[in-house]
Amino acid sequence: MAPLLTDRQRERREAFAALAARVVAPAAAAWDRDQRIADEAIAALADAGLLGCVLPRELGGLGEDVVTFGLLNEALGRHSSAFTGVLTVQTMVGSALAKWGTDAQRRAWLPKLARGETIAAFALTEPGCGSDLGALALRFVPDRGGDAYVVTGRKKWITCAQRAGVFLAFGRLDDGRPIAALVPRDTPGLAVEPIVDLMGFRAAGLGQLVFDGAVVPATNVVGKPGFALTHVAPVGLQYGRISTACSALGLLRGCVEESGAWASARPIGGRPAADLGMVRTLVARMGADLAAASFLCHDACRAEDERVPEAFEKVLTAKYFVSRAAVRAASDAVQVHGAIGCSAESPVSRFYRDAKILEIIEGTTQVHEELLGRMIAGRYARH
Ligand SMILES: Cc1cc2nc3c(=O)[nH]c(=O)nc-3n(C[C@H](O)[C@H](O)[C@H](O)COP(=O)(O)OP(=O)(O)OC[C@H]3O[C@@H](n4cnc5c(N)ncnc54)[C@H](O)[C@@H]3O)c2cc1C
Fold it and tell me: Is there an atom of ligand 1 within 6 Å of 128 CB?
């Protein structure tokens, strides 16, 4: 996103790239292999205040603009999508809480999230409910004269569940109204089961949450009951899409840089592979996608900073385009590398596995097409 940045954003970009090169790049392959991010790496992010990048200053955050948040995701995503996932979900919960939490909830949780003392996870998906939120089934039954809820059901595919100290869990009351609440990990009646051996995002610590009569105080409900899917979740999901789009931009950049370097060094028939027209085609395609993706991400982040009504569509467009471009680029990057691209010796094999995940999380490609297609066709409808 370099061409459109302020001087301060450029400085932050340099600092993020340096942090990512020092903390993420040397370790990302090992985290992927071990299916776990090292605690010190998350501590490094927390120590720099970056887990609270966009959270308000008065509540311990850095109060950075969304463009700067995008740059951070791009820098981390350049080396590890799974690591960026920690920032994604921490920001999804933090932003939803900053907007819809009570003063007491904001004061109790946001400084801890910003400092990384508590890692949060966004628990929306269930075994029977992914894209179709109408099928949301986690049950909240009022208890103790309305002072608490008894929660029963399951959440699945929850990023950072293995590490999180608190979950923002979405469910329904018996009358069908959607509800969201903060559920601390140590709540009796809540068990976390690790999900392992994923294709990509292997270090992101996914888990399944099993609620078996977990008692959650009514003071932990975020936003008004009935508004969880129309107000609370959309704030988190908007940041989730921004984070994912910019993380995908980082992965795309990684594909271009790794492919350019490899093709320039690998001799084929006495000349570098980059001299072959067909290899140049592959690199040209991903390079052009990178340039376009960079502008779309900047446009989306800036629209969010300016709080313009078009921000929603711009963020959808960025997430849709860049995640798909990342999948194409990762496939072409493996092709450029040949056999070494199929092995752990090159990061592009990991990029290839991670890229596909970016098309599924925060709304699948098809869900984006459904929404964008409707908006774009509607705009040009002749009445
Ligand atoms: C690595 C990883 C991390 C994740 N992290 C989290 C997390 O932290 N929190 C969380 O809550 N969830 C998380 N998820 C879950 C993720 O959000 C869901 O997988 C996603 O929303 C899709 O839901 P689903 O898997 O049930 O697929 P389904 O919704 O069952 O979709 C199956 C297929 O149908 C298509 N489809 C669905 N609806 C439509 C439609 N209306 N029109 C056209 N096609 C459609 C989809 O595009 C897809 O191709 C994660 C998933 C993964 C893989």
Answer: no
What pTM did the predictor assign? 0.97
| The total number of residues written for the chain in this structure | 383
Is residue 16 within 6 Å of ligand 1 at its C-beta? no
Ligand 1 atom closest to the Cα of residue 363 is: 21
The Cα 323–Cα 181 span in angstroms is: 30
What residues of the chain score a pLDDT lower than 50? none
Apex 33 CA angle, 332 and 241, nearest 5: 60
Regarding the beta carbon of 93 and ligand 1, being less than 6 Å apart is answered no
* Dihedral-angle region of residue 143 (phi above 0 means left; psi in -120 to 50 means alpha; beta otherwise): beta
pLDDT of residue 4: 84
pLDDT at 101: 98
Amino acid 383: pLDDT: 76
Residue 15, SS3? helix
DSSP code at position 204: S
Nearest CA residue ID for atom 47, ligand 1: 366
| Per-residue H/E/C for 70-137 | HHHHHHHHCCCHHHHHHHHHHHHHHHHHHHHCCHHHHHHHHHHHHHCCCCEEEECCECCECCCHHHCC
Decide: 219 and 181 in contact? Cβ < 8 Å: no
Indicate the top mutation candidate among 88, 157, 206 to test ligand 1's pocket, ranked by most ligand atoms within 8 A of CB. Answer: 157
